[in-house]
């Protein structure tokens, strides 16, 4: 299960979550820091990533295009990096199940 963290999520989470989500990356690490949503979407689709974002744009994109890639939308407002880490750790079993299923295009976490 590989997560691609969007620009609106701290790149420090890649290392902090390496035990739970190995092979994950941040858009900055893969040269997409200033890229638009379409480039991020294409990169994730072609390389088997699930996009994690606090922005609704990828959620909306999943309605238009389906999956892959899958999208995790974190709707917890303005919160700390530590809070996002805890959300992703606490929901790890559900996230893994979501990434493996062949039905759902997005998962909303609050």
Keywords:
41% helix; alpha/beta; 5 helices; 110 residues; 5 strands; five-stranded parallel sheet
Structural account:
The protein is α/β, with parallel strands linked by helices. The protein has one domain (3-109). Helices cover 41% and strands 15% of the residues. The chain contains five helices and five strands; from the N terminus they run E-H-E-H-E-H-E-H-H-E. A five-stranded parallel beta sheet has the order 2-1-3-4-5, with helices on both faces. The chain is globular.
How many individual β-strands? 5
Percent of residues in helices = 40-55%
Task: Give the radius of gyration.
Answer: 12 Å
Number of structural domains: 1
Taking strands numbered 1, 2, ... along the chain, how are they ordered across the largest sheet?
A: 2-1-3-4-5
**Series of H and E elements:** EHEHEHEHHE
Q: Whole-Å distance between the termini? A: 20 Å
Question: Percent of residues in beta strands?
Answer: 15-25%
Q: What is the residue-mean pLDDT, rounded to a whole number?
A: 94
> Low-confidence segments, ≥5 residues, pLDDT <50?
none
């Amino acid at each position: 299960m590989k997560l691609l963290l969007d620009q609106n999520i701290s790149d420090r989470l890649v290392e902090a979550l390496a035990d739970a989500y190995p092979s994950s990356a941040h858009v900055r690490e893969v040269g997409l820091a200033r890229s638009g949503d379409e480039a991020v979407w294409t990169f994730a689709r072609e390389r088997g990533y699930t996009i994690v974002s606090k922005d609704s744009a990828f959620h909306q994109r999943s309605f238009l295009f389906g999956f892959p890639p899958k999208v995790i939308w974190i709707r917890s407002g303005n919160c700390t990096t530590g809070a996002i880490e805890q959300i992703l750790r606490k929901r790890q079993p559900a996230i893994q199940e979501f990434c493996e299923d062949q039905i759902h295009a997005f998962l909303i976490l609050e």
